[in-house]
Amino acid sequence: MTHTQNSDTGNREVKRSTRRRGIVRLGLGLVAAGGILAASLAPGVLAQTLLPQTSIVTTTTSTTGSSATAATTAQQMTLGTTETLTVAQTEGPYFKTNSPERTSLVDDTVQGTLLTITGQVLAADGTPVANALVDFWQANASGAYDNSGYNLRGHQYTDANGYYTLTTVVPGLYPGRTRHIHVKVQAPNAPTLTTQLYFPGEARNNTDGIFDPSLVLNVTDNGDGTQAATFNFVVQTA
Length: 238
Ligand code: FE
Hints:
Helix content is 7%, strand content 29%. It is mainly beta. It has two domains: 2-78; 114-234, Protocatechuate 3,4-Dioxygenase, subunit A (Sandwich), CATH 2.60.130.10.
């Protein structure tokens, strides 16, 4: 449960070079397809789960005339866009294989600020990746990893639209690192991406040797003592 300074950075990997290519815009048919996709998703998570790393245009249409204003969100996916692959980072010393399959890492023994992270796993062309493995592990609110068991460790598979949802707590700080969550993401029959997710506004983001701003969660304070965050992964699919 103890940590050596900069333990996660000890075997630092070379960051995958990123690339940004031109955007290929397809026709209205794909806009319609995006609308169909949007209609099939839970309305409460649409705006935040789809936005951060995808080239998706969100439009909101308000309908008045009733006692309540009905808002309809349409997603216009620009399929064919080449996305920047999510940056890879070091695994660190605390990964364990065979984590339990679960979407919530929180039980009666876990303390801390409740955090829900949602997002999609996408291919480089923007296509959602179904059945992708997403394996999280993190320190508890006190900054300690469970190396004897599987507390705050768990894997899951994305749904038919490439979505994952993780219920956890905000990880604590430990010496030498800024606040972070470890994750491995693997599309079916494809290479595994190992990386870390970070939190906005952390003082240590400025001094952590491997902090990468492209890996910062989009965090929202729910106003009830809990937080929600979004992050989309873009991974190799072959
Ligand atoms: Fe770590």
